[in-house]
Amino acid sequence: MDDSESPNPMHTLRALIVNDCRVEQAILVGTLRALGVESLVANNAEEAQEIIYEGAVVDLIIMDKDMPVMDDVIHATRRLRAMGVTAKILGIITFYTREAVLDFLYAGADDVVLKPVRIKKLISIIEEINNGI
Amino acid sequence: MQGVASVTRAPFPPAHALTASFRLPCSRRRCSPQTLRFPPLEGYLDEQFHQLEELQDDVSPNFVEEVVTLFFRDSSRLIGTIEQALQKHPQDFHRLRTHVERLKGSSCSIGALKVKSECTLLGEYCDEGNMDRCLRSFQKVKREHAILRQKLEAYFQLLRQVGPTEKASGSGN
């Protein structure tokens, strides 16, 4: 790849938001839209995996750990990595515990943050994606 | 309809054009620092709310009010669920905590500082399995939720009166 140009100037980044809370979905979609990122939304880990199985290509996956079946999110993260998904995975949690963070990281998440997800964090992740980090 | 996915198109400059000093294009922003001139909201909302206001633009001029409306609709339902859960005997504190986490999560997302704080305490009491404290803490959650709703309703009413072109010009109160 020629380093003098962006990874793909015509490529609009896409994110998959895995979250069953409509408020948080709306905020993440709106925030990502403002940052020039298209969004897909899945209401649970199973839907997220279906979206990927069906061929959707995303650059970023934002996984909310605090959904009705919490372990599904961790298992889904592990399965997505096992499938070869290389998208950045950002885990988000509501209550901090060392265990929650480690569960996510060991499953293959690139980072874990407490809610709410700040714009600065998303900008930093988007820059990493653009720089191929 | 597939049902599980929705795609929104991004009208802003593509993400690859972002730099570390990214700011939303001024022509797209509607500066809305009105929370700084609305003393009743001070202490009730944190930086997250201001961040949401920064996202408002010509494409989504009512983004914040829409999100807030959605929040109160969902959180009212959650509060009802928690209230019912608190009446169960024996108490399932794990399940109760799950509901509290969901309420805290959405409160965090809109910057509802006091509601979030009370949810944190309620979550701790759930972990302790202390029913009395859970009940007292839950009343505080409900109170802060109701107060915030009133204040935000007043705030958005004020914004509608002021109009979309009004900008903060300093300290004037």
Automatic annotation (TrEMBL), chain A:
It comes from the Eukaryota. Its EC number is 2.7.13.3. Keywords: Kinase, Transferase. This is Histidine kinase protein. It comes from Dioscorea alata.
UniProtKB/TrEMBL annotation, chain B:
It comes from Dioscorea alata (Purple yam). It comes from the Eukaryota. This is Two-component phosphorelay intermediate involved in MAP kinase cascade regulation protein. Keywords: Kinase, Transferase.
